[in-house]
Amino acid sequence: MFELLAAVDEAGVVAIEGPPGRPVLAGAGDVDRLLEACFGADCGAAMLHAENLPSAFFDLSSGIAGAMLQKLRLYGVRLAVVRGPGVGAASSRFGELVAEERTRRDFGVFASRAEARAWLAA
Asked: What are the sequence ranges of the domains in the chain?
C-alpha cells in the first residue's frame, strides 16, 4: 500500500502525494510510512486525499487525527488533505479542528487538489 505514495514536484514544490480514491494509511501508526516517504524525497509536505486516510481520521474521538498530526508537526511535515463534497461525514469536532488549524501552517483541508497544492506552495 505504501508504494502508492509518490513525490510530485510542481513548480519547484515537492510533496508526497497519495492517489485519489485509494486507501493508503490504515491507522495512526502508518504515519511513519508517510514520514519515511517525505524524508526519502527530502520534502516537508504531503498531500493526501480523504480516501487515503482511515475514515476514523475525520472523527476526532478516535484520536487518529490527533496522533497523526502531532507526529507530522513534530517532524515539520505539513499536510494538505483533499476532501471534496460528498466524501463521508466528519464529526463536528473535526470541523472545529480545521477551523483552528487555519491560523497555523501545518494542516489544511481543501475541496480540490489545486487548492491543496496552492496552500503547500504558499
From this structure: 45-122
